[in-house]
Amino acid sequence: MGEGEGPKEACGLFGVWAPGEEVSRLLYFALFAQQHRGQESAGMAVSDGGNILVFKDLGLVSQVFNEGTLATLQGDLGIGHTRYSTTGSTTWENAQPAFKTDGTTSIALGHNGNLVNTRELAEREGWRSKATTDSDLVASMLSRCGGSLEEAAMEVLPQLQGAFSFVMMDERTVFAARDPHGLRPLAIGKLPNGFCFASETCALDIVGATYLREVEPGELVMVDDRGLRSRRFTESPRKALCLFEFVYLARADSKLEGRTVHEARRRMGEALAIEAPVEADMVVPVPDTGGSAASGFAAESGIPYGEGLMKNRYVGRTFIQPSQSLRERGVKLKLNPIPGAVAGKRLVVVDDSIVRGTTTRQIVQTLREAGATKVHMRITSPPIKWPCFYGIDMSTRQELIASDLAVEEVRQFVGADSLAYLSLESLVSATGQRKSSFCRACFDGEYPIPIPEHTPTKLLLEKSFHLENS
Ligand code: SF4
After folding, report:
1. Taking residues 347-375, what's their average pLDDT?
2. From ligand 1's centre to the CA of 388, what distance in Å?
3. Is there a catalytic annotation at residue 439?
């Protein structure tokens, strides 16, 4: 759901090497642009070439940093992170960048994604930590290798299974790496006097960087005073970018694989109007992510587009409130129908996905209370039937309403007059990419990376590997 119940993204990343620039300020604005990817904590690590300083805390980017903290974070290179937790709970220790030092060399790491062989790695390493994230585990593995971070990365990265985009650094070099399937995005940008890496291209725009290319699946890219260099740490069996990036996760002004997300979503709306037409008076988006698709639906169907739901832009996305009851209360804080706009009208309400169904049900109910005579739900993705183990917070079948219920049963649950989902074929076609270049597992159950028998759970590391605070 655009503004409702998820799915949730696992994090936003930024890495920058730009001597002479105010690096902490670049990091701040790049994280600010990627706030939608994680709102539980924010952090950055900056190096002046001799020492790495880390500052992180729970909260939004604007709550964690101020002029004072940015002024202390002086240096030529740095990495930053915004977090939504998919492994480990929301604690200060689990905020990123993860930082490890052996007294002489230090490393910092930010991670977007979820490993699927975390338990095996943690057991083999005999890993114990106050942090309980797979990201901290990887930072430990890198640190234990000794030697250069480049060689450590070449040794450790091939051992990791699952989804990972990393930004990493030692005192002098910034690194970016992407798992062999490229599940989570990571782009390279060029600055006037340096380079940067970002989960989304909207972060490149805000710091004035020009898009260079994507970090390739299985590639380790590094930048320092020797320039931008690249190595392959493993072969890529096939590309499998998360299809949900196009549907919901990425900002509409970002580009993925060369296509603007807004454009792709608009096409999804157009396709939905062709696949599931309906007589109505107004097409209403669920803000914010439904907007592009709703405009496409309106253009294709000839039904006028109109704002029918108002968003309180000062309330964070509901996914900063992890419990179900808070989520249910949260949606009313943020989405309010505009009574005059919807009263007496037959509405087509366009949203990106339905996860649990509870938020959709509330939206339908509040629109009816505001006087809508019909509420037709149109969803720009297929039913989510399978859990995600690669970093999106929908990891059990039980929480997915469409895993057991047919479309008609979901319609009854949400209380809509009609409900239709976009077909997988049309969704993929709207992206301009080939179906085989995506992970679509939550829609079709075809997991690009095999899921181990003991499927990873969010609190896996809490149970067995947690070192209590002393
Ligand atoms: S299972 Fe779904 S949400 Fe998870 S990575 Fe694949 S496409 Fe994305």
Report:
1. 94
2. 5
3. no
